[in-house]
Amino acid sequence: MRKQKLGMAGLVLIILGLLAGCAKSAAETAVSGGKAVGEPSPETGKEEEKDSDGEMSSWREAVQKMFEDPYGDYVETGGEIAFLVDGSVEDGGYNEAIYNGVRMYALGAGVSFSYYTANPDVPESYREMIVRAVEDEAGLVVCAGNIFGEAVGALQTVYPQTSFLLVDSVPWGSEGEALPIGENVHCILFREEQAGYLAGYMAVWEGYRRLGFVGGRPEPAVLRYGYGYLQGIDAAAKDLSLDDVSVNYWYADTFSPDDAVREKADGWYADGTQIIFACGGGLYESVLEAAENQDGLLIGVDVDQSRVSDRFLTSAVKNIGPAVTDALDEYYAFGGWSGEDAGRIRRYGVEEGCAAIPVVDTEWRFEEIPATLFFEIYKQLKRGDRGVSDDIGAPPGVAITVNYE
User: Fold this and answer.
1) Fewest Cβ atoms closer than 10 Å to its Cβ: which of 31, 214, 287, 403?
2) CB-based burial, 183-213: b 16+ in 10 Å, e otherwise
3) Mean pLDDT in the chain?
4) Taking a C-beta distance cutoff of 8 angstroms, is the pair 90, 71 a contact?
């Protein structure tokens, strides 16, 4: 099955999300000469206010450029910002969300950027791409995904003058052990367990009793999604006094479309599973194929996947692009990682508006429950009245039946 992209409508939402941001918009503090525009000094206040107007115009021009050519404006090599990724930046999901975050900031701030693609089947290519970006004089290397944690862990001290933004990972060693985070590294992590919780909770309230989870590999982000999903399903079952809820749970050992994934999902649907959370890059394509064969439904991951197919009931989303833009804004505002960010981890979740399910009218596909129920549960999570464990050391203790395969 051919992969479908988000298209222009999806790009509109991405741009709006970037302008709104998770914490504060990068547009609010576009950088000019290392100083955040919009903070006029007593001597030059009026001049800088005029400069601010000019900067906002540049952001409007950046948005227009993104409409005209969604994947243009990067330089082949040697960008000040180098985005490193495995797979395509046009995947309609995780990679594309980060790419758009980098691109939106770079265009608005007038910073050159490039991207480099590692080969997921060649482990050494991750380090090779970092070395290549450094040799091409990138000042900031943005790495997407847990697999880059090992490469950054090995090279952060080798290239102390190069800054790294590590998304969805922390530096780790060849044996999987955690390493100290260098002062030239900043890490962005998400509270995926909260998004997974919301998706699972709402699916049960909608009336689904037999659910499934297919994860790519048991990596931290996937584990948090999956364990949050189980907790949400369990909480809904308790709130509704249900004793007939069950979940099939399996890791596919791949993030790509695969016959084994399709066969597993096909068997689950045929046996009565109603909806499967497809959590792991492009493997959703194989789950979707099975859903179409068996009249099943899916839950998407990372970004809203409702435009891919009507079979996506909802998606467990984390607003990756705005979080990346926010980090880039901080980096350039201070001319490098500041004391709050250097060698530190910053987590984004419901409190920052970065863990949810889509709720826009055209994306709300629940028929039995109103969006107001979601907002109530969301507010409870945000206030701390409803807790979700982020422990990934072992599966959560739940009362529902979970069939681990």
Assistant:
1) 403
2) bbbbbbbbbbbbbbbbbbbbbbbbebbbbbb
3) 84
4) yes
- List all residues 6 or more positions away from 373 whose beta carbon is below 8 Å from its beta carbon: 202, 205
The pTM for the full model equals 0.80
Contacts with 123 (C-beta within 8 Å, 6 or more apart), sequence order:
none
| Antiparallel, parallel or unpaired: β 185-190 and 163-167 | parallel
Which value, in Å, is the radius of gyration of the alpha carbons in the chain? 21
Task: Tell me the two tokens of residue 383.
Answer: 């206030």
Question: Burial of 298 by CB count in 10 Å (0-12 exposed, 13-18 middle, 19+ buried)?
Answer: buried
Report the distance separating Cα 178 and Cα 27, nearest Å: 35
Report the alpha-carbon distance of residue 142 to residue 99 in Å, rounded: 10
Q: Please work out, in degrees rounded to the nearest 5, the angle formed at the alpha carbon of residue 33 by the alpha carbons of 24 and 11.
A: 40
Q: What is the distance of C-alpha 21 from the center of its chain? A: 13
Q: Indicate if the pLDDT at residue 327 is higher than 60.
A: yes
Residue 145 has what pLDDT? 87
